[in-house]
Structure formats: structure tokens, C-alpha cells
Amino acid sequence: MKILITGGCGFLGANLASYGISHGYDVGVVDNFFRKGSEKNFKWLKSLGKFTFYNENISDYDSVKKILKAFKPDCIFHVAGQTAMATSINNPRIDFEINCLGSFNVLEGIREIIPNSKIIYSSSNKVYGDLNELHYIESDTRYICPEYPYGFDESVKLSYKTPYGISKGSADSYFLEYSEIYDIQSIVFRHSSMYGDRQFATNDQGWIGFFCDEAINFKKNSQKKPVEIFGNGKQVRDILYSDDVVSLYYFALMKIDKSHDNVFNIGGGPDNSISLLELFNFLEEELKIEFKINKNEMRVSDQKVYISNIKKITNLISWKPEIKKFNGIKKMLEWSIRK
Question: Is residue 241 flagged as an active site residue?
């Protein structure tokens, strides 16, 4: 089977490509090295085995058509994207060009060139907006949303509150409507927080990895500079380790047939939810440190709580996360030390 991975040198893309290469798939990788660490991931992938590489920008439709005509994939993992909220707010044009226009170009290419292929799109929980219309309880370490005790399911109303939410939500809607109108076999995964090996995190993207890096640097340095956070640290997300994300994509590729209801909320679920303060508590215990925290104003449109209700995908294909949050964070620390 031929699998094309857009953004294949990014965090998720590189993990998907690694699995495909090592399990005998004919893998094509599209990337233009926009993201931090993508060139390092490209070199790492080359050390694993053979794959076809396209150094192209999906915002250019002619490039997309050229790739699809040359490679003719049976399936596309469309995980290319601009995922940093601050970048989105500071430069909404590039956010639109990558997330919305780039996704549209991939869909149009499928419609024109390879209409019988399958595509899995990496969407975001940000299509649900800031969720500030809900009620929250504040405990010592986290916010709690009593209206959704098992997490947010796919019935939550879409609400695009930021340029990033608009760009991801627009693409999300295009995938669902192209499935209806043109019978494109598409699957939409609305992801919560992901983390793991090959993630070169920043303070605006990949918060688990970023704070693992901060904790390690804090332990190493004699001058203990405070860790900067936005908000009071009680914001909650469910986290999903990269190995579980990869197993989901390849399992879905084999298990999910053509349907017009292939949209799923994806994350670690309630059992793998964690707040910033709870993460800091774990890192302090694990590394024998005591964080100094400098709290800043909460970021625009930040969600106090987002936990995925994963019952729909679990019931359909029997997938569920295998790596528990604290085991995964230990793995993340190991990656942060050796990268």
C-alpha cells in the first residue's frame, strides 16, 4: 500500500512515516521544513530506510497535483499544518495558507486525480472554540467542567474563535462536505494534546515536551529562572502519546470504511487528563526539583478544560490509548534528555 504523508517531517508525520517505513509500506513524505526540528527528523527518517521525498509546499496547487500524479497514493495522512496559536494570531495569512488553502488543495487534488483514495485529516479541538459558555469548578490543581464529566464528544457545537480555529475548522468542514458531495473517503480526527519522541517543542506548541525541556534545564542550571506560564496553571487537557496516535492512524486506515460520519474526537480521554500544575508536581517529584513559576495573563481563547470523549472511535474500531500519562511523560523526559 502506498501512503503519502503531508508534513511528514514534523512530529506526528515523522512518527507515522517511521512506522510505515519499518512495516513495509511504500511511503511518500511531503515537507518544506517549515517547522522547528523538521530537518532533523528528515535525517532521522533517511537512516531508517527507503521512502520518496517531496520538498514542496502544499499551499501551491500545482505542486500538490504534481505529487499526486507522480506518487498516486492509496491513502494520505494529511498532518501538515501550522499549529502554534501565537503564530496564528501574529501571522494569520500563513496560518490560512497552510491550514485552509493547503488542505483545500489536497482535497481538490484527490477529487481530480485519485478520487478512490482514502484521506485522514489531523484537525484540532480548537474547532470548538474557547468553551467559555460552560460552567467550571476550580479545585486546588485543576478546572473541572461538570457538564461534560466524560469529556467533550462530537456533538459539541463548532465555534471558531481565533484565526487558528477558523483555519482548522474551515479545512475540517471542507473534508466533511467533500465526503458528502464528491464521495471522497475522508476521516477527520479532532485532536487534543499529543506528545512524544521526535517532537521539538516550543513555548507555543507541544506543551508537555516544552515543560519537560524546561524542567531538565532547571535541574541543570545553577541560576533557577522562573518557568513562565499563561493563566493560573489549572487548565486541563487530555494527552496522547505518539505511539498511540500512530496505532490509531494505521488501525483506522484498515478498519474504517467509506462513511459520511467519519469525524472523531481524539485524545487520551479522562484517565489521561492533566493540568499544568499537576504536570509540574510530577516533574518536581521525578527530577527532585522545585519549580519557580511566573504566572502571566491567560492566553486569548485558551480553553480552561478540554478532554476528549473517545467513545465514538473506541466503539467503532476498538482503539484506546495504551500508554498512561505518567509513563508517557517519563518517556518524554527521556527523549528530552537524549535529543
Answer: no
Look up residue 96 and give its three cell numbers.
Answer: 490560512
Least confident span in 31-40, 67-76, 79-88, 314-323: 79-88
| Banded model confidence at residue 19, pLDDT cuts 50, 70, 90 | very high
- CA torsion sign, 91 to 96 to 102 to 103? positive
For Cα atoms 41, 200, 128, give the angle at the middle one, nearest 5 degrees.
Answer: 110
DSSP annotation of 143 reads E
Block residue for cell numbers 511531503: 30
Segments forming the whole domain that contains residue 329: 2-338
What is the Cα 283 distance to its own chain's centre?
A: 23
Helix (H, G, I), strand (E, B) or coil at 245: helix
* pLDDT 10s digits, 172-206: 999 999 999 999 999 999 999 999 999 999 888 89
Q: Which helix (H) or strand (E) holds 328?
A: helix 325-338
CA distances from 268 to 117, 236, 308 (A): 28, 12, 7
Contact 117, 75 (CB under 8 A): yes
Q: Which helix (H) or strand (E) holds 305?
A: strand 305-306
What percent of the chain clears pLDDT 70, i.e. is strictly above it?
99
- CATH of residue 242's domain is 3.40.50.720
**DSSP line for 188-218:** EEEE-EEE-TT---BTTB-HHHHHHHHHHHH
Q: What spatial distance separates the first Cα and last Cα of the chain, rounded to whole Å?
A: 32
The helix/strand/coil state of 107 is helix
User: Domain count of the chain?
Assistant: 1
The catalytically annotated residue of 19, 25, 164, 249 is: 164
